[in-house]
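for the recovery benchmark. tokens below, seq after
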């Protein structure tokens, strides 16, 4: 267990964004912000300023405005207070428990379905993501760990070739991603998480759907437990984020 984790400023990690041809600026900004929320770059309750976001990404405010509206519609952002500040949502314990239970079912199922389709090249990419996570855990680099954690899970689930299922899973991660960052501060979180990821890798190599499903579900349950313990032990966090049981 690391005594501390390495973290960088959210905005410096966000951009700049190198826009490419063939896709609208709004779509590219939306995908970058969505990825940032899913991988925990932003924290619960963090305010998302239109102009600051545009400055960080190096774009005009127009595509950012439309992307933020879409993320609000998706549930990744919310309007708060009389001055209508846009921020990362602060979820209640009941909402967190609901998301945990949904994730257990959806991601466990996606993992079991992935076994039927996943190939050697995809397994190598998953192993690479796991290796990066291990290096990040050893260095206490929470940012790199969380980015690679999403990549690890997404590679498995996408192999199931279930686009609607994958979209629903991404919607859950969009809501809970900022909170997963809090879970990594729990004692032995890195160790427990990596144990589940190694079990998932072994299950992939063995083509064992049941073992893969069990490893993924254990990872989700452990993260939820660590998050609940962190919220209980952190008096500075909003009161609505009470124990997750």
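predicted aa per position
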């Amino acid at each position: 267990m690391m005594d501390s984790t390495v973290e960088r400023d959210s905005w410096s990690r966000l951009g700049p964004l190198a826009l490419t041809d063939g896709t609208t600026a709004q779509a590219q900004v939306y995908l970058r912000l969505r990825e940032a929320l899913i991988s925990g770059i932003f924290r619960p309750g963090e305010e998302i300023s239109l102009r600051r976001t545009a400055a960080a990404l190096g774009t005009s405010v127009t595509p950012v405005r439309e992307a933020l509206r879409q993320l609000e519609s998706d549930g990744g952002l919310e309007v708060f207070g009389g001055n209508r500040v846009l921020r990362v949502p602060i979820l209640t314990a009941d909402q967190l428990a609901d998301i945990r239970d949904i994730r257990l079912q959806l991601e466990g199922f996606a993992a079991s379905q992935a076994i039927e389709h996943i190939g050697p090249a995809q397994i190598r990419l998953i192993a690479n993501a796991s290796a990066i996570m291990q290096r990040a855990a050893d260095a206490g680099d929470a940012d790199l760990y969380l980015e690679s954690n999403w990549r690890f899970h997404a590679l498995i689930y996408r192999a199931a070739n279930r686009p609607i299922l994958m979209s629903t899973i991404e919607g859950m991660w969009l809501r809970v991603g900022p909170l997963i960052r809090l879970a990594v501060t729990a004692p032995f979180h890195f160790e427990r998480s990596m144990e589940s990821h190694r079990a998932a890798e072994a299950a992939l190599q063995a083509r064992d759907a049941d073992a893969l499903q069990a490893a993924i579900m254990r990872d989700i349950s452990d993260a939820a437990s660590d998050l609940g313990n962190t919220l209980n032990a952190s008096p500075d966090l909003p009161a609505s984020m009470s124990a997750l049981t």
